[in-house]
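Slide 14.
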Amino acid sequence: MNGQCCPMCAAGYHVYSHCTEDSSTTCAPCPKFTHIDEPSGLTKCFDCTVCEAGRGLRVNKACTRGSDTVCETLEQFYCTERYKGSCRFAVKHTECSAGQYIKQAGTPSTDTVCADCEADTYSDGSFSSCLPHTQ
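Slide 15: predicted structure.
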């Protein structure tokens, strides 16, 4: 209006009506299951992210008007895609094969590292080191 900027709405609120020469911006709270995480001039709030178990995810922090859902990995999964501190996609940890041992266990952010057993040792794939063959 007249080359002036309208006031923005606070995080958790959207523009209900834009400012005019006679009135300021009117803001309204984001409806349930929606959010805006920073001050803006948006007229609609964003849908809250759903943490899908089928993508290896669960809720770490529920969505509020002012912040989106924060997802974390399910057990035995690691995160492959992050956005604003939330995991967006996860993959199941690699399972070591027979003849391999778990060199480094998987974490929520890294995959399992497998290594081959040396001669005359064995592992079913679930051991953290290889065992000697017995006669």
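Speaker note: The CA atoms of residues 15 and 27 lie 5 Å apart.
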